[in-house]
Task: structure prediction
Amino acid sequence: LPLFAVGRVGFAWCCTAMAVVMAAAAGGGGGLRLPLGAATAFCPVPRFKLASTPPFLRFARLPARCASSVSSETATLEEGQQQNAKEKAERRSNQEGVTPRSKDFNMWYLDVVAAAELADYGPVRGTMVIRPYGYAIWEAIQAYLNAKFKETGHSNTYFPQFIPYSFIEKEASHVEGFSPELALVTIGGGKELEEKLVVRPTSETIVNHMFTRWIKSYRDLPILINQWANVTRWEMRTKPFVRTLEFLWQEGHTAHATEAEAEQEALQMVEIYRTFAFEEAAMPVLVGRKSRAETFAGAVRTYTIEAMMGDCKALQAGTSHNLGQNFAIAFGTQYLDSKRDLQYIWQTSWAISTRMVGGIIMTHGDDMGLMLPPRIAPIQVVIVPIWRSEEDKQLVLSAAIDVEHSLKAASIRVKLDSSDLKTPGWKFNFWEMKGVPLRIEIGPRDVVSQSVVISRRDITGKEGKFVGISMDPVSLVAFVNSRLQAIQTNLLLRATAFRDSNIVDVGSYEDLKVVISEGKWARCPWAGSDMDEAKVKEETGSTIRCFPFQQSVHSGQCIITGKPAVEVAVFAKSY
Result:
């Protein structure tokens, strides 16, 4: 009891001291010999780097020689002591795999991506392999958005990955904006190509080429299409999910007869993105218009959802562009109106990518690892059965399977971890690190009482643990659903409070500099030019994230020019 009274840290030190005493007792004249369970804590190389190992896989397993060097006589510990030592070692190993978020946010992120089995580095620099658990999150994003796209009249299609370079050159601002990121193919089938091909960075050009063939009359409009595809942009500084050489996304493309229809479409789609961010991803994004300098290359206006990450940097999580007639003029995409006059079409394009997965990680994660909103979590509930004897095992597993079936029947995504290769304590840590919203524990006494213990991922300690929850299917399903909704709500409220506490209204350029230097977002009246914005970026490292749709009260005077300002802008450093 005194050991537990000093807390987790004190208890760990006490265990270490006990291990040293045990080692001294076991050691002979030849040197220090450690009990098997304590060996990992005193291994001469407990943590090391491999030159060929990616940064976010820097923690390697202990070398076999450390364990094999322990004297065989120490393996005579009683079974209970071995089990306790094994569990403590496994907990320690699992915890050491993730750098605390509060210590190093970037390394924490890379550790979580690796340890939670979301992605791995590909063999080509800047690429990643999305692992099943990470792809399942993307599938949840796809499922929601795909349904919304179809509800609003859009159909899915697919365009080729290779685009003639001449297409990119047709729209001047487009080629200028994308030229540094293009990947080009110059050889095919062992021969040099007559025209080099661009590996799709985005599809506005090839879409317009096809629109020119498909659209002849006003009766052919509107066209509302979307494609789920991969994109290649030759990024120099990469980060899994957030910025990679190749990534997955959806890109919508529409053609309209009037400017008003195109504007309505662009606003409709950014609203769908906003709704997804708030209701599914529990990300309280700011929605607004991009500045001219930040507008998509070739667009008239760009609308965006901007999310604040756990380190206060901004993440552009989704965009919707009103393309005007820029691409239509470049490609000659015209139609005959009802008066038999030729008119250029009006267009939009809009996209969300796997960057959203990175945004979810960085919005909700904590020192223990990933924390997923229930609505997009691949696994909403994990069941951990606990037993000591073979007799207990059969009894507990039977009850756990019944609970699993009850939850599955209610369309709750559930995982039963019945493996006996790891201890319950290791499983608790592992599933917490993977961000599973709820954990159900079932032991022999729970089976007798026909109840379970349920723990929330978002609230640690006794406050987040519920004991004696009935196994009755109706009662259990109702309780689980209510807790999942509570977690979803809590994550949004928590992220919103964090966002609001880190957005500061400023009344001068000097104040903006101070706020940005503190890592926060600065909101201020703005009527500056593109050159003024470039100056702020050069001097502070921040950019205008957006002119929010929801404008706050302000002085009406631009902080940098002193001219009258009709709207506020939000400045921040970003990914």
